[in-house]
């Protein structure tokens, strides 16, 4: 996402997949809201859950793995405990060995996201970490949420 994206223009319909993520008491910091590092954990949960369930990602055994090479988050509103966050996902760029995912975290019932961000994965051969084509089953899953 670019810095020019207005969070008021981001709505659930702009995304292709969702996952409900409950906040935990341990997510809260001394300011009594979800700590910023937890937003990245929610992003990670959303992206990897999608690739596991719909792309057949097998983290411990796949010969080609996706490494996170870039991430970003823009905070728009605080999240709290207890609440359930709606994580929304789309893929916006799908190359031969890389994919860019965009994510929005919504408080239930609110029209605009509490946070927006992105992840960039580069797929590499396990061990040697040389770029490799995105595995076909993962590519097929990412194509389903490509915008």
The largest sheet is: 5 strands, antiparallel
The general outline is globular
Give the helix/strand class.
alpha+beta
Q: What pattern of helices and strands is seen along the backbone? A: EHEEEEH
Strands, count: 5
Strand order of the largest sheet: 1-3-4-5-2
**Low-confidence sequence ranges:** none
Integer average pLDDT: 95
Strand content: 25-35%
**Helix proportion:** 10-25%
Distance between the termini: 13 Å
Instruction: Report Rg.
Output: 15 Å
Total count of helical runs of at least 4 residues: 2
SSE order and pairing:
Elements lengths: L16 E6 L13 H20 L8 E12 L8 E11 L3 E10 L7 E11 L10 H9 L3
Antiparallel strand pairs: 1-3, 2-5, 3-4, 4-5
Helix pairs in contact: 1-2
Offer a concise description of the structure.
With 147 residues, the chain is α+β, with helices and mostly antiparallel strands. Helices cover 20% and strands 34% of the residues.
Jot down its keywords.
147 residues
Give structural notes.
It is a single chain. The protein has about 150 residues and is of the alpha+beta class. Helix content is about 20%, strand content about 35%. Helix 1 packs across helix 2. The protein is globular, with a radius of gyration of 15 Å. The mean pLDDT is about 95.
